[in-house]
Hints:
Blueprint: H1 4-25, H2 34-51, H3 59-85, H4 96-107, H5 114-137, H6 145-166, H7 184-221, H8 231-242, E1 252-259, H9 262-269, H10 271-288, E2 294-299, E3 302-308, H11 312-329, E4 331-334, E5 337-340, E6 343-350, H12 359-375, E7 381-383, H13 397-400
Parallel strand pairs: 6-7
Antiparallel strand pairs: 1-3, 1-6, 2-3, 4-5
GO molecular function, one term: diguanylate cyclase activity
Catalytic activity: 2 GTP = 3',3'-c-di-GMP + 2 diphosphate
Protein name: diguanylate cyclase
Amino acid sequence: MLxxxxxxxxxxxxxxxxxxxxxxxxxxxxxxxxxQLTLGLVLFGVGFSCLSFMGSPLRPLLSGIGYVAxxxxxxxxxxxxxxxxxxxxxxxxxxxxxxxxxxxxxxxLDPAQVxxxxxxxxxxxxxxxxxxxxxLLRRYHHMGRGEWVFMAGVALLTAALVLRMFSPQLSxxxxxxxxxxxxxxxxxxxxxxxxxxxxxxIGFLMMAQARADQxxxxxxxxxxxxxxxxxxTVMQALQHTLDLPHHQRRPLAVLxxxxxxxxxxNDQCGHPAGDQVLAGMGLMLRQQLRPLxxxxxxxxxxxxxxxxxxxxxxxxxxxxxxxxxxxxxxRAHHAKGSWPVTISVGVSALAADSADVCSSVLLHQxxxxxxxxxxxxxxxxxxxxxxxxxxxxDGLDLLGQGLGLGLLRFPERFVRPSRDDTAER
Length: 425
């Protein structure tokens, strides 16, 4: 049977090794709680190193220092979760547990009170473990594998403390100083603590890596300036909708939008003002669109919206609503004032009973409609393939300008000039 000193020193070595590995592998998460967790593992090692010398004449002092260090390690773990989840924490609360345990050891230093002391200390440690558990359970519906591994470590640590609370003989501080052999129950208790430390460290690294992977995925799929999906993500959503079986087909519309005179905004107001307009456009789209629609930045000052289950008439109504929202919300600011920013929208629609169409055709149609809206005076909506009898044209700004329906019929021979040959948009 292993002696108590050997068992404790094994846990000390494990804690220090885990702290080194966590500090090394988790250095990129240092500011997300990795530093606090590493400190907690070091403090666990200090605590068990003190408990490993329980046969010395300084047993009461070492016991107090050991449990204070152990409590400080738990508080450091709590701080790591607060930092990881960015939950505000008053630092003073972290000092309450170690100070309380130090006070308990001073007040209950008499050997006759060792059982009461052990139960009081374990009870306080259990409460702080429950604090960690509730931090994790706040995100119960979003907990990943890392959170569950960390939770398993917290549960094992709590179980070991509960055993010591109701079976004080499992505590080194209750055993007589002459005890140098560990019972099987005591060895099991230490094995549980050993596993709990590993699970907490591994769980935190898994949590941090999962967050890093999510951020990387977001960076790959999202436009950082507008907060909208990027072009590749929207194109995948469009293709997914077109790939549905024919019996599941629903009407589909694609809106291609462009900020009017955006080059003038950048030239006269500066690129920071232009970035604010782009960010405002992203916010406006998120506010105006229903959850089923997918809006994204198509490139430069162009935006795209994929609208499943949307007819041509509904798409035109939506586009008009977006134009009005842009006029009311988007402004370009410069030193002498500001002016409203408008958008032009090209719409292409696909009926539910239409033949199979590839995404490039829909995008080409929307692009041609957008160019025609620009050509007709900007700040308006054009629907590809519209005719005089289409009810979807009711309320179009183009009609109000008296420019005639001929601009909306889009002969098949019409081809949009290349971007290099196009005037300022």
